[in-house]
Amino acid sequence: MADGTSRPIETKEVDHKRERTLSLEVRSHRFGFAFFEGWNLLDWGVRRYPDCGVAAAKLGSLVTLYSPSVVVIRQVRRVRGKEQSSAAKAIHEIRRELVRSKIKYAILKRPRIQDFFAGYDCRTKHEIASRLAGHFPTLKSMVPRPRRPWTPEPHATVIFDAVGTNAAFVGKLPDPNFAL
Length: 180
Fold this sequence. Notes:
The protein is an alpha/beta fold. The chain is 38% helix and 19% strand. The chain has helices spanning 52-66, 82-101, 110-118, 125-135, 157-170, and strands spanning 20-27, 30-37, 40-48, 70-74, 104-108.
């Protein structure tokens, strides 16, 4: 990084047309990621981790591979149980790794992301994933089916959540006709 410091940043501090952004959706024992250069979605995936230290190490390998100028992470819900506590601890370790690596980062609160997609009339994860697939055609085949309350969340959902976190950070979705 040019200035040699790591700190939380605001959206207005970023040139989104040129920025190399790594967006993360951290869950208990896994995280989804999406890597962008400007509007181009270059890579995405899911990484599993047995403990928080491994999560930070796996992030370190992604940082080495992609050299992002900023990392965007969605804040986890308030810690109520062991599952959410695990994700919160992983985010803490990831932030420490970002500071150590001198990478700028942003933590987005859930209401900001929900409000962003409400502006596109998307309220459910399926509606959000379908909207994102319309803007990023490479994700179209991965759109999960609508989820029933008694079924587990599909594997690909964390990828769409990471892509959605990036869109909320930028503050708009790309034109669907944009040549990717």
